[in-house]
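Supplementary Methods. Inverse-folding protocol.

Structures were first reduced to a discrete structure-token string of length 346. This string, shown here, constituted the complete conditioning input.
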């Protein structure tokens, strides 16, 4: 619905009282912030459950008066440079910001913010009391190192953490700080032009040691061309670190598993130390799979990749991992799909 002039107010009258509007999308074009309150009084009626507002620019006057706001999503707001969320938003628990290219800082005083989703370049974060933060997703460069170095001390009560990095050049550091309550960890590393081939996947052990309550680990390594040191290199010796039992880790899935030495060492560490592990899935492809569904397809892969990477990954699993898996753990090794990647069998 497009509101532009005062004379359009009459159009908001609902003639049939039996009709209850639950979803309202309000797009404002040419409306000043001074008029916003009057427009909302006209448009927002009892019974509305989902309200999408698309303003031209400033949100300050809206946020200052939306006392019942529980979920705020900013998508593609290219004019916003500084986002300030006042403390009066007592009910705000979810904030999602993506596609805001010019955004430089977020200053939130909302006391009950517990879920945060951020994409884009690094920005200045001031979130007030971060002890309430339970769920966090961040997509940015070098976010894995940042999360381990900063978040375990500033957001110690996280339960779900999702990280995606298109550029990870620094190994994950080993630190004494802990994610005491973290249960679900997802890390996606995309091998782009700036992804360092010297990055050590084995350094991700730092997250495991810092997360004593971890139950699920999902690692997605998207690398069409494996440039890391192979486990089949000359004089290969698998590294080991002091044993540290993980009592709650039950499910581990690694997508894009290859013969990279660090990945093999990480899998061996998990098998040895995750005493409650129930299932370990090693997928030798990267990206999405069809899983046998006829209306979907696996992510395309070059013939060169299919003929080289998956066979070497399977050999690495059989050589270094398979015989270490205890009988109580279900090991699933996924090879190229026979329907989508039939040429991989040639």
């Amino acid at each position: 619905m497009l509101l532009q002039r005062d004379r359009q107010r009459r159009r908001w009258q609902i003639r049939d009282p039996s009709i209850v509007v639950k979803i309202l999308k309000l797009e404002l074009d040419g409306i000043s912030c001074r008029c916003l309150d009057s427009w909302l009084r006209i448009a927002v009626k009892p019974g509305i459950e989902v309200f999408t507002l698309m303003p031209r620019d400033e949100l300050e006057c809206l946020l200052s008066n939306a006392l019942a706001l529980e979920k705020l999503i900013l998508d593609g707001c290219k004019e916003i440079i500084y986002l300030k969320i006042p403390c009066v938003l007592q009910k705000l628990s979810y904030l999602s910001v993506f596609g805001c290219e010019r955004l430089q800082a977020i200053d939130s005083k909302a006391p009950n913010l517990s879920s945060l989703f951020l994409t884009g370049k690094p920005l200045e974060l001031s979130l007030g009391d971060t002890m309430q933060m339970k769920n966090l997703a961040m997509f940015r460069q070098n976010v894995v190192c940042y999360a381990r170095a900063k978040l375990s001390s500033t957001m110690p009560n996280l339960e779900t953490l999702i990280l995606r990095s298109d550029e990870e050049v620094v190994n994950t550091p080993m630190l004494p700080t802990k994610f005491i309550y973290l249960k679900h960890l997802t890390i996606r590393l995309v091998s782009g032009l700036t992804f360092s081939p010297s990055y050590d996947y084995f350094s991700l052990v730092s997250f495991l040691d810092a997360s004593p309550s971890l139950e699920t680990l999902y690692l997605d390594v998207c690398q069409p061309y494996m440039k890391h040191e192979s486990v089949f290199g000359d004089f290969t010796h698998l590294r080991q670190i002091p044993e540290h039992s993980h009592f709650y880790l039950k499910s581990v899935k690694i997508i894009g598993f290859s013969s990279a030495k660090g990945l093999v060492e990480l899998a061996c560490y998990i098998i040895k130390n995750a005493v409650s592990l129930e299932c370990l899935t090693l997928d030798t492809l990267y990206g999405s799979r069809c899983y046998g569904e006829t209306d979907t397809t696996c992510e395309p892969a070059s013939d060169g990749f299919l003929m080289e990477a998956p066979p070497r990954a399977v050999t690495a699993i059989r050589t270094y991992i398979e015989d270490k898996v205890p009988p109580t753990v279900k090991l699933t090794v996924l090879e190229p799909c026979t329907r989508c990647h039939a040429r991989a069998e040639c």
